[in-house]
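residues and backbone:
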Amino acid sequence: MPTNGSLNRKLRMGLIGGGQGSFIGRVHATAAVLDNRAALVAGALSSDPARAKASASDYDIPAERAYTSYKEMAEAEAKRADKVDFVSVATPNHTHFEIAKTFVEAGFNVVCDKPLTFDLAQAEELLKVVEKSGAVFAVTHNYTGYPLVRQAREMVLGGELGEINAIRSNYIQGWLRDRLETGGQKQAAWRTDPSKSGIAGCFGDIGTHAYNLGRFITGLLPTEISCSLKIFADGRALDDYGVALVRFENGALATVTASQISHGRENDLFIEVDGTKGALEWHQEEPNKLLVRKNGEPHKLYTRNGGPYLGAAHGASVRLPSGHPEAFFEAFANVYGTAYDAMVKRAAGESFETVNTVYPNVYDGVEGMLFITKCVESSKQNGGWIAFRHPKSRK
C-alpha cells in the first residue's frame, strides 16, 4: 500500500524543543517515525539559538531547517512548497500556548505534550483557535496508546464489566523525594517551578495522566471533585503528593493518587476498574498484561496479542507477535498513528472526527487543565467538594 494511503508520501514533521539533554523530545522523534509514516525534517530545538542549531545534527535535521526560534520556523515553513505537515511541541508547560497557537493559526497540525497549557484560560483560548482552524490537534496522554488499555476501554464500553461503580487510578514515583531542583537537575527544576509548571506540580505532571486514563477507559463524565494536595519536601513550591476523589454522573466514584516522593517507586501508573459484572486491573510497568476478575470464576490474564479473544482496538495497536514485549515507545507511536489518519484526511480535503477521537485531543487537554484547576481550588478549601465538568467534555 502507498505510504499514508492517498497522500502517497511520508508526513513531514517539525519538532519544537527536544534539544541536547531533553528526554521527551527524543521520545517524540522516535515514536513519530516508528511506523515509517513520518520523517523529521525541521526543528526549533531550543530557546537558546546556539543550542538550537547545535542540536540539529542529533536529529539529522539539515542546517537550513534548523531554526533559532519557533516563530522563525512557523514563518519560514509556511512559505515552503515542502512545508511540514505537523509540529510536535516538546517544551515546558508555560511555552505550550504561544507555540501551539502560532502553528495552528499558520495552518499546521499540532501534537502537544501535556498538560496542554500553563492555565485553564490559555487552554480554552487555544480550543477556540483549534476549532476555528480545522487543524488536527493531538495531546500526548500516551498511556492511552497501550494495546491493553485500548482493550480495557473496548471491554468497558461494550458492557463486559456491567455498570461501572469505582475507579482507582494511581501514578506513583519517588524521584523527587529529595529536592533535586536545588542541584540544577533540569527536569526537576522546571517541574517544581510555578513560573514554568503552573499552579500544580506532581498533580499537573502525572496526576493528569492518572485521571485521563480513568476517563479514557470508562468514558464516564465527572460532576464533582474533592482534592487534597501536599508538599512533603521542605521548601518546595509545588505539590509533590495528592489525592482526589471524583464523583461521576452515573454515581460511580474514582480516586486519583499521585506521588513523586515514594521511596523506590519508579513509574508506577496503575488502574483498577470495578463494575457490576467484573473488574479489571492494568499496570504500566507490566503493560502487556491485563487482569480481569469475576466472582466465582478463575482470574483471567489477558496478554498483549495473546489471541482472538482480544478486540479490534487492541489489534490495531500491536506490531509484534505475542511474547515480544511492546511498551512506551510503541504506545506513544499509537497516539501518533491515529492522529496521522486524521492528518491524511485533512490533507486530502476529507472530513474527519475531531472530538470523539481515539487519540487524546485538544478537548482532553482542556479537561486536563480543568482537572488541575479544580484540584488546586478544592485543596485550598481543605478538600471541599466543587463542581467539575467542562461544557465540552467528551466521552
